[in-house]
User: Which sequence fits this backbone?
């Protein structure tokens, strides 16, 4: 299957035209307050815009959903000089998790030039757990505002549930896609066929389960990430990590996998270990929830002993980009981190 005749999902490190995200606004979804997650997510957006000393953006345009002019003004105040690289879209939406509520952008080449399309999937509030007004309409809205073509598929799929390397390999988890809540009538074979058709992949690697207290039921973007074709990063558990068994199982499964008959190269990053909210609840904190933008990689940090080592380890994987660590704990309190709150719009392939 070539890029000339079928749409495929490009790897995240391929060039982007834009990155989509949203402004956190609902106090019921952010139990420790809105100020810190708002500041963290706007710092993330500013990093992706990456303005130089003159204020000229070096990175990519950020497309930001806000509900109103008041939200836009508050976001601009936090963005500062980076606001020049942000385009604001006013509409109602539930929360910031555009990785899951937005479309998944796919591309294909051709003699007349490259093409981008927005693949839209059914969204059921993460297996019916979090049904928020406006979230089911986000995908169509983003497709319309992105200015690209679109297509719709009749099964449930969230962007955080899948990870691709742009050369035919896809990672996902059984807990999420085969757990029963999202697509109860589809078995592994049927889901693989749909993933191959919708995303242009060939080889699918199934991991088992995710982190404790993960609202998404084991999204792959908190567990393992492609950092180059056939190269996967995953976390080595810290001493006393509550997720030690799951993380060791992930490493074992990745090392045993043979997609297309070839082994994956597995590199490790330390885990943040035991990270809790103010009430003492275990959080699904993960350094794997980083974003690969055009000029930077943004890594969530948690005030953990391994923060600096994890940022340094990820930086080595992306020598052509600047790597920055930003506070992720205020965001993960709401259910995700930086990668969960973004969706890249790739540039057309040349």
Assistant:
């Amino acid at each position: 299957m070539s890029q000339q005749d079928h749409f495929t999902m490009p790897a995240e490190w391929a060039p982007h035209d834009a990155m989509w995200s949203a402004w956190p606004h609902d106090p019921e979804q952010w139990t420790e307050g809105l100020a810190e997650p708002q500041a963290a997510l706007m710092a993330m957006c500013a990093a992706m815009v990456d303005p130089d000393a003159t204020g000229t953006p070096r990175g990519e345009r950020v497309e930001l959903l806000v509900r109103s002019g008041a939200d836009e003004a508050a976001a601009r105040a936090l963005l500062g000089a980076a606001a020049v690289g942000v385009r604001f879209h006013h509409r109602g939406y539930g929360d910031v998790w555009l990785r899951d509520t937005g479309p998944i952008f796919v591309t294909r080449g051709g003699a007349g030039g490259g093409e981008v399309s927005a693949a839209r999937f059914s969204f059921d509030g993460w297996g019916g757990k979090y049904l928020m007004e406006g979230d089911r309409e986000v995908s169509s809205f983003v497709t319309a505002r992105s200015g690209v073509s679109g297509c719709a598929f009749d099964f449930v799929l969230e962007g955080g549930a899948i990870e691709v390397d742009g050369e035919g390999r896809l990672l996902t988890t059984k807990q999420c896609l085969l757990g029963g809540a999202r697509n109860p009538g589809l078995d592994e074979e049927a889901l693989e066929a749909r993933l191959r058709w919708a995303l242009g992949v060939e080889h699918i690697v199934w991991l088992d389960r995710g982190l404790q207290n993960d609202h998404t039921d084991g999204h792959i973007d908190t567990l393992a990430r492609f950092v180059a074709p056939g190269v996967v990063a995953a976390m080595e558990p810290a001493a006393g990590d509550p997720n030690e068994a799951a993380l060791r199982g992930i490493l074992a499964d990745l090392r045993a996998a043979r997609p297309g008959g070839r082994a994956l190269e597995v590199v490790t990053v330390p885990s943040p270990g035991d990270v809790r909210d103010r009430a003492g609840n275990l959080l699904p904190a993960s350094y794997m929830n980083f974003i690969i933008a055009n000029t930077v990689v943004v890594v969530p940090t948690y005030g953990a002993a391994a923060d600096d080592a994890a940022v340094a380890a990820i930086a080595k994987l992306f020598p052509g980009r600047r790597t920055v660590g930003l506070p992720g704990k205020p965001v993960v309190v709401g259910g995700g981190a930086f990668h969960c709150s973004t969706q890249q719009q790739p540039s057309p392939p040349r």
In short: The longest strand covers residues 115-122. The chain has one domain: 16-341. The chain has a mean pLDDT of 95.
